[in-house]
Amino acid sequence: MATDGLNIINSFDEIESLALTEKDNGGIFFVPSFTGLGAPYWDQYARGTFWGLNMGTTNGHIARATLEAIALRSADVIKAMEADLDVKISEVKVDGAILNNTMLQFQADILRVPVIQPEITEMTMLGTAYLAGLAVGYWENIEELKNQRTASNIFYSKITPEEVDHLLKYWKKAIERSKSWLDPLD
Q1: Is the per-residue pLDDT at 1 higher than 50?
Q2: Using one digit for the tens of pLDDT, what is the confidence trace for 132-177?
Q3: pLDDT in tens, 91-144
Q4: CB 29, CB 170: distance < 8 Å
Q5: If we measure between CA atoms, which residue out of 73, 74, 80, 79 comes closest to residue 32?
Q6: From the CA atom positions of the chain, what is the Rg in Å?
Q7: Contact yes or no for 40/179 (Cβ under 8 A)
Q8: Please, how many CA atoms are within 13 Å of residue 125, restricted to the half-sphere of its CB?
């Protein structure tokens, strides 16, 4: 059973191996705005788009662009939070079942801060268990829990600031072209 209507990807596990068939995104940028763009753009009329497709585009480029889009959208929100709070984030701790090394490396590259992947990927469920344990006295305090989180991997940026600027230039261009795709009356 395919996970997308185009039948390019058969499973979430396949995305990373497909993305690794290419060294980069081949100039392809994907804007994942299937129901509009949320923070920090707030455009309900934006729609999902691929930009930069050409005769050399492969399924690997599309898979890589899709993983990169997740990291780029996350970076957009993190940068907006930094601006709103007037802080600079020094590291990003991630969790979730769909995380993969290619996406996390790209996240570290774009943000230029370490991205820390935990051993346990479902931190939301673990957080619930921690709260229950605190409530019944299994743990005495939050300090006991701070040492519970262990990293399985830490990703550091491997690209130059100029490479980041180049990628962000095209990302911003793709975002702008995806905005207001629909007319308000559609």
Answers
A1: no
A2: 988 998 988 888 887 777 778 999 999 999 999 999 999 999 999 9
A3: 998 887 667 899 999 999 999 999 998 887 777 788 888 889 889 989 888 888
A4: yes
A5: 73
A6: 19
A7: no
A8: 5
User: Residues 68-78: what's their mean pLDDT?
Assistant: 96
Q: How far, CA to CA in Å, does 54 sit from each of 16, 57, 174?
A: 22, 5, 15
Query: CA 155, CA 112: separation in Å to the nearest integer?
Result: 10
Per the listing, tokens 């993190």 go with 78
Tokens matching residue 169: 């230039």
Q: Which residue has the tokens 């370490």?
A: 114
d(CA 33, CA 7): 19
Look at the block and give the residue holding tokens 């395919």: 2
Distance CA 49, CA 171 (A): 12
